[in-house]
Amino acid sequence: MERVLASLLGRFTYVAIVAVLGAAGLGAPISEDLVLLLAGAFAARGVTDFSASLAVGYGGVILGDLLIHQWGKRLGPRAYEHRIVRKVLSVERQEKLRSHFARHGGLTVIVGRHTPGLRAPIFFLSGASGVGFWKFLLCDAVSAAVTVPIVVALGYYFGEHLDDVRRRLHQVQYLVAAGALLLLAGALYLRRRRRAKRHGELPGGLPGGRAIDKEI
């Protein structure tokens, strides 16, 4: 796959970057990270310009993400019955994802962008779960603005060691996703504690603060 992509990008450069990233966004078995790494590597060799490769790569990533989001939006709830979704997500995970989208749609999109293997299904289901176009675009664009330049730069400076870079990149992405999930879990825990304090026992000994009248 790497040789095929390298040949395609080397021949058609910017057009190929956009087209391949769009196809990857729609679920084609193509590594988005590999395309961006190769784009950086070709820029280092002078085949393309680094700034142009970065801009085109960023645009291609956003385009692919929007395409799969809109696909999920068109299908609506039926998207959860799709074979790709069933293959990647169990019924239990689907229910949890529905809940996350309902409460924290934007944050779920951001976490999804940094979760290899789940990125496409999460974006697909974000559309099916009612995450709006502009909200999705904003969260995805901000998140991609951090990761895309890093990946392209890694390809530019370490293009001769793509296999090692990809392996370490995936490790970092999993750590980032795990950290984001832990932060989300911590935020939910603190929110529930605050709600429990507001609606729990208040001075007086009874829930709601209703004091017990003392008999004289």
Write the layout of secondary structure elements.
Elements (H helix, E strand, L loop, with lengths): L1 H24 L6 H13 L5 H26 L7 H6 L2 H23 L5 H10 L4 H26 L3 H38 L17
Helix pairs in contact: 1-2, 1-3, 2-3, 2-7, 3-6, 3-7, 5-6, 5-7
Characterization of the model:
By secondary structure, the protein is an all-alpha fold. The chain has one domain. Helix content is 77%, strand content 0%. It is built from 8 helices and no strands. The protein has helices at 2-25, 32-44, 50-75, 83-88, 91-113, 119-128, 133-158, 162-199. Helix 1 crosses helix 2, helix 1 (2-25) packs across helix 3 (50-75) and helix 5 (91-113) packs across helix 7. The termini are far apart. Mean pLDDT is 78; it is low at 201-206 and 209-216.
